[in-house]
Design a protein that fits this description.
3 helices; TolA protein; mainly alpha; single chain; signal; 136 residues
């Protein structure tokens, strides 16, 4: 009986640790996405510096990068909550925090993609304006 309880307790601890690790992974993914969004926004700013026509797309990229950063922060907070809840609370609290971290990571990825799209648009607009001014 003692061995069964020990095994069950070990399994529960392993399960809670896995949930916590999932939240940490999601938070890391969100941070990577936020970094990518920031890089895309910087590229868009460079394009806007070359061509004023690219400025609106650069603004969009900056907004998306900021959204990705906020989502990454939320993922980090959810991961911290999952980690702190894991030893003391039920697995449902840890699962909820892990899910929040995953949702925030997904939001960061979406925002990073929006920033990349806006940066590409800014580059295209800058190139179009360069081409047009070169043809005149």
């Amino acid at each position: 009986m003692k061995l069964t309880r020990t095994l069950l307790a070990s399994a529960l601890v392993a399960l809670l640790a896995a949930c916590s690790n999932g939240a940490q992974d999601s938070a890391q993914d969100a941070q990577k996405s936020a970094d990518q969004a920031q890089q895309a926004a910087e590229q868009a700013q460079q394009s806007a510096a070359q061509s004023p026509a690219a400025a609106p797309a650069a603004e969009q990229a900056n907004g998306a990068a900021n959204a990705a950063g906020q989502a990454a922060d939320q993922a980090q907070q959810a991961a911290a909550a999952a980690s702190s809840n894991a030893p003391a609370n039920s697995s449902s609290a840890s699962n909820a925090a892990s899910q929040q971290a995953q949702n925030a990571a997904d939001a960061a990825k979406d925002a990073a993609n929006q920033a990349k799209d806006a940066a590409d648009k800014a580059k295209d607009q800058a190139q179009d304006q360069k081409d047009q001014s070169g043809n005149h």
